[in-house]
Amino acid sequence: MDSHWLWTAAVGDDGYGRYFLRQGGRDTSVRPHRYAYELATGVPLAEGEVLRHVCNIPTCVRRGTGQLIAGTF
Q1: What is the pTM of this model?
Q2: Distance CA 55, CA 7 (A)
Q3: Which residue, 9, 13, 37, 50, is the most exposed by fewest CB within 10 angstroms?
Q4: CA 54 to CA 56: how far, in whole Å?
């Protein structure tokens, strides 16, 4: 498998990266792997859709090599 792009900033208790954006006067939590997926595909994830880490590394944000696949539980 190709090399990983690992998120090196804040990581939540669940092991996934996170950062905050200020929108409308409120802080909104953003998951970098979800943002990377939407940025790469141009398609926002649907309600209830999750990203599966094929590489099994929750901090990986590399979308282009198929390491993040949209799906459901």
Answers
A1: 0.77
A2: 14
A3: 13
A4: 5
Q: Which single residue is written with the structure tokens 């649907």?
A: 46
Per-residue pLDDT tens digits for 6-64: 999 999 999 999 999 998 999 988 899 988 888 888 888 888 898 888 888 899 888 76
The helix/strand/coil state of 30 is strand
CB 35 within 8 A of CB 16: no
Q: Which amino acid is at 35?
A: Y
Closest CA to 37 of 11, 73, 63, 3: 63
Q: What three-state secondary structure class fits 46?
A: coil
Tokens of 44: 């926002």
